[in-house]
Design goal:
The complex is a heterodimer.
Chain A: E1 8-14, H1 20-28, E2 32-36, E3 43-50, E4 57-62, H2 74-84, E5 95-101, H3 105-118, E6 122-127, H4 129-134, H5 141-148, E7 152-155, H6 164-172, H7 189-205, H8 212-224, H9 229-247, H10 250-270, H11 275-292, H12 295-311, H13 314-327, H14 335-340, H15 345-351, H16 358-367, H17 377-387, E8 392-393, E9 396-397, H18 398-423, H19 445-479, H20 496-508, H21 515-520, H22 530-542, H23 552-559, H24 562-574, H25 579-589, H26 593-621
Parallel strand pairs in A: 1-4, 1-5, 5-6, 6-7
Antiparallel strand pairs in A: 2-3, 3-4, 8-9
Helix pairs in contact in A: 3-7, 9-12, 9-18, 10-11, 11-19, 11-22, 12-19, 15-25, 16-18, 17-18, 17-23, 17-24, 18-24, 19-22, 24-26, 25-26
Chain B: H1 2-22, H2 25-42, H3 46-60
The chains are: A alpha/beta, B mainly alpha.
Chain lengths: 622, 85
Amino acid sequence: MPAALEPMRLALVGVPNCGKTALFNRLTGSRQKVANYAGVTVERKEGSFVGPSRGQRYRLLDLPGAYSLTPTTLDEAITRDCLLGRLAGEAPPERVVCVADATNLRLNLRLVLELRDLGTPLIVALNMSDLARDRGFQLDRGRLEQELGVPVVETVAIRDGGERELLEVLETLPRPPSRPAVEWADPTFEQIQQTQREVRRILSAAGYAEPARRRALRRMDAIVMHPVAGPAILAALLFFVFQAVFSWAAVPMSLVDSGITRLGVALHDALPPGALNSLLVDGVIAGAGSVLVFLPQIMILFFFILLLEDSGYLPRAAYLLDRMMGSVGLSGRAFIPLLSSFACAVPGIMATRTIPNVRDRLATIMIAPLMTCSARLPVYALIIAAFVPSQRVGAFNLQGLVLFALYAAGIVAAMLVAWGLKRTALRATYHPLLLELPEYKWPNMRNLLLGLWERLRIFLQRVGTIILALMIVLWFLSSYPAPPLGAEGPAIQHSFAGMIGRALEHVFAPIGFNWQISLALVPGLAAREVAVGALGTVYSLSSTGDDVAATLVPMIAKSWSLATALSLLAWYVFAPQCLSTLVVVKRETNSWRYPLIMAGYLFALAYLAAFVTFRVASALLA
Amino acid sequence: MWQTVVAGLIVLVAAVYGLWALMPAAFRLMLAQRLAAAVRRTGRTRWLVRATAALELAARRNAGGCSECSAVPAEPGRPKRPDKD
């Protein structure tokens, strides 16, 4: 076939989210062939089309999104290698169409300049140009073309005919001569800075102006993401959240608590003494009810998380924390999985799939359980309510301060473990975080309420199913066999649960745990907050006479020493006992090796932390 | 006496549910599939066939100890804007 009749090889390049694939579909009519690049699971999309005026045929390749030619992910490396002609069996494109989001040129032009410097015949397609005009962006396109030295066209990939100008320019340009593979060296930091300066100069020369609202948001970001003010604002926000969790929840919690207590008393009085009476009062009400009390605190915590998420602040927090994570060797991409782990480690661990480097991913998986998941909140809240007085320290509530310290302890522990892992078993180079910051917006009340409703539903469903079932089984184990005739003390001491608790007590006595706590850790394997319910059942069955109606907080305040309480808090900062987490680690790593290592190191850390805490506290309080 | 019988039944149901919910998902699915197939083969009453089919469907869900992840696999999301990658 004569060269002129051969399809011209075109490639679409652009930063993620610039509308590249939409333009690809517009040009090819979605007639595409989807496969993977040889040897890697990165999607390769290829299509073809015929030019409308000259009948030139084109083979169009939609390359993975890339912010620059210095790859931080496998996708970006594929894009770079394809453009440089380094991919085996893939000739470099004869012409490149760089798709740039017209509403975010500042982010897009670095790639344009790098492509221009490669010497590849280039066309810049300003996509979403209609949106840019509607939003008030200003740009002298002719001047931009002059400054860049390459054709610049406007496209609206989502509209019929939005590709017309691009096609016209493509058809008028002569077919470029074949060129050999291009040499490319990753730029130095100074060269990147120089490119950024050039981007600013070109935009200024082309009269690029953002709308007033965007400028105001940039000024706001200058404060929110300032190296000093930013972390201070973040810390203050988190501090406020934890204060609110205790201060605002006090009234609804006491209402739920008194409702549950009344229900227990009513049931106790309504039914004649017997097994069913005990099951409902000591198992169901005292067990599942003691977990339900913490519903207001969980709702308040998630209210703030959803508020920050919906307002657009969370990606900024990711940016602020990237430096801290980088200092311990973690990838910036670890932030979102770790943030998800504050709700639950399971989705957090699953979210690590976005981390391309396998060692970075493993390190993030290994520390995800150290983020304080919401299942730990009832345990923390119970112990804090029992042992930390609700008094003010300056402007702050002491209970809120302790909760903040526990969350901070989890983060610090995670960073220390990551630091250790990244310097020993999981060494890898640091990959900076690149993300597009969304605009700030007022949180949508409907979204907030829907999010809270979802949390409420999940929590109640959990209390009503697995927690309730485990509490009933625990009641049985705590009630049978009946004590022998003439036995002294509460019947539970002679039950199966009593026997298990006493056996476990040998292991946990050095860290100050009595047999009730040791026993509560067992059903806590299913879910951490079940330990609270288990304590509720065990203490309810341990009490006699008038104590039956008493709630869990005064019971443990009476039964435990402060050193034991602090030791249990230290234990739960590491809390290795979550089967779901271990199972999902097995699934994600396809090996039992990592969940076993995780369970082992978390147990060792938890035991060590609890041991030191108990011994030091006992010595100081003696 | 009646209290002991009722409490025993409740404990039995709770124990079976607890085992079911906490066993590995693959094992749970295998059990549910075998049960459903066995009931279909024997041609028992329609409600039993429906119940075991529902059990099989439930086993496909990601039940377990985690409260925060959805029990049902998420539907594939739709892009907010058609022009986005």
